[in-house]
TrEMBL record:
Residues 65-79 have a biased composition (Pro residues). GO terms for biological process: carbohydrate metabolic process. GO terms for cellular component: membrane. Residues 92-271 form the NodB homology domain. It comes from freshwater metagenome. InterPro entries: Glyco_hydro/deAcase_b/a-brl, NODB_dom, Polysacc_deacetylase_ArnD, TAT_signal. Keywords: Hydrolase, Metal-binding. PROSITE patterns: NODB (PS51677), PROKAR_LIPOPROTEIN (PS51257), TAT (PS51318). This is Unannotated protein. Pfam families: Polysacc_deac_1. Residues 24-64 have a biased composition (Low complexity). Residues 24-84 are annotated as: Disordered.
Length: 278
């Protein structure tokens, strides 16, 4: 009988140990799952960086850190870029492309209106402007608008030698990658709607397959007045049109809402250049 009691007590002890081991195993699996959750440390770090939230999992004893990230690399060089000034004509879709400079207030207002009206934009960004307005550059990219390279210092490229052209393209591309994570989809030369073999070659070397021109130009940079800009755009667009506009000209910003309405009244859909040009 004494032996039976000892066996009974040993059995109870063994069961207790087994339950304890099972509990530790479950806790370990829970900890591992938490530590390997791909959204754990990155989301917590992102929330702290943006101020959008706080992570209760982070303690002072074991601070969460973001893994080091490599800077975006330049794309491989391509052959000469092709010049495109109009997209596919299979449907009534057009793209509004903006030479992107201007004051913070002008560009902010443009982006606010585009968001409210649900208008995707194609933003050809000048490097010197981007260097001074990095938050706006990131906002453009984060909103899903097309980004493009419009040279670093807005020189008239057809008048420049090869080394200057190459530097203007490469310097803006590098800054775009640093600020937005991509060098942009397009290159547009400054100073002319035309291109040259030299410009096409250097754009291709920088990884741009397309030099993006335009087929509708309201000459808004001459400040003809808001009503004239709207009329010139609405009267000249056709399926696949790419419109040239300038974010640094107040008349263009002031007429944006009514211009969008006039375009839509004619049955056109507003899209990005990447929706028109393959």
């Amino acid at each position: 009988m004494a032996l039976d009691r000892r066996q009974f007590m040993l059995g109870l002890l063994g069961a207790g140990l087994g339950m304890g081991a099972a509990s530790c195993s479950s806790a370990s699996r829970g900890s591992l799952a938490a530590s390997t959750d791909p959204t754990d440390s990155s989301d917590a770090t992102s929330s702290r960086a943006t101020g959008t939230g706080a992570s209760s999992a982070t303690t002072s004893a074991s601070p969460a850190t973001s893994p080091p990230t490599s800077p975006p690399t330049a794309p491989p060089p391509l052959g000469p870029a092709r010049y495109v000034s109009r997209g596919t004509t299979v449907s009534k879709r057009i793209a509004l492309s903006f030479h992107t400079e201007g004051t913070t207030a002008q560009v902010t207002r443009l982006l606010d209106m585009a968001k409210t009206l649900e208008v995707p934009l194609t933003m050809l960004i000048v490097g010197e402007w981007l260097d001074q307005n990095r938050d706006l550059g990131r906002r453009i990219a984060d909103a899903g608008h097309d980004c493009g390279n419009h040279t670093y210092s807005h020189l008239s490229l057809p008048d420049q030698k090869r080394d200057v052209v190459a530097n203007e393209i490469a310097r803006c591309a590098e800054l775009l990658r640093k600020v937005t994570g991509t060098g942009g989809k397009w290159f547009r030369p400054s100073g002319s709607n035309s291109t040259t073999a030299l410009i096409n070659e250097e754009a291709g070397k920088a990884g741009y397959p397309v030099v993006l021109g335009f087929d509708t130009d309201p000459l808004d940079y001459q400040d003809p007045g808001s009503a004239t800009v709207r009329s010139r755009v609405a009267s000249n667009i056709q399926a696949g049109s790419i419109v040239s506009l300038h974010a640094q000209h107040q008349g263009t910003i002031d007429v944006f809402e009514s211009m969008v309405a006039a375009i839509r009244d004619k049955g056109f859909m507003l899209v990005r250049a990447s929706d028109l040009v393959s």
